[in-house]
Design goal:
single chain; about 325 residues; about 40% helix
Length: about 325
Amino acid sequence: MAKSDHIRNVAIVGAGGNVGRLMTEALLKTGKHNVTAIAREESQSIFPDGIEVRRVDLGARETVVAALRGQDALVITLSGFTPKETGDQLIHAAGEAGVPWILPNEWSPDTANEQLVKDVSMFQPKVATRKAIEELGKSSYIAVSTGFWYDWCLAIPGAFGINFDEHTANLFDEGDTKISTSTMSQVGRAVAALLSLPVKPEGATQACLERFKNQVVYVNSFSISQKEMLASVQRVSGTKEQDWGITKEPAQQRYKDGLEEVKEGKRSGFGKVMFTRVFWSDGCGDFEHSKGTLNSLLKLPVEDIDEATQAAYKRWEDPEWIGRKWG
């Protein structure tokens, strides 16, 4: 535990990744944290300046344990397709190294919603990881639910149904269902603000990490419908509704079609299942209004939707952008 009862030393797995880099930069900006990137020996990632890089062999746990010694918190941000065994290795190594706090690989819609997790198998390892941390009993977790990343997913036609190139929009049901989403920058700010809280209450300040011990917490940028996303896209692109081809598709049928595609081994099916499920009318995608967020407590900024949409456009214009394969 940090001597001042604050988190000082933070290790990040995935510090060179899309959102991991933003977390790292936000943590450094506070001036309160020493950041260490935990990277595979063979990693070619380029890491932000101002951090230490410790290379490990995930197949040799002792190297991970050694890299994590002296850390007050471990932040895990990896691809959703990362094998569950990798997460298990990290949390066991963290426990052995005496790391008291873990922010597991959450960064998603509300995986405390049992029905959502039942319906979307990709979310199930997140629940298993939280359970494993508690059962191990050596570290505590705070799982940060952010919803899908707005400025990433908006640029994927198969995610929110909007195709920048073709000027088409496929609305699920009527396109009125709101979901809670976050920009990647907001995710980075949330992590930095959360880990800047005292571990225990200080004076009149009750906001502290202990308050959120072994819980899922929520942050977001917007709670927004497809129609509202499309309106922002039209403002940013200087187009009008008549310039777009708009279709509608029942959300539950799209989800079922995705399940069939998964059975056939089609990657597109995973996207249909994962993204469409949060747009069902049961409200599972809108955690802001069902459970509330920590935005105010963490003093997160109110963002401009059109600026976030513009960021998505810039991402789509990059021919090397990895999101294009989700099409």
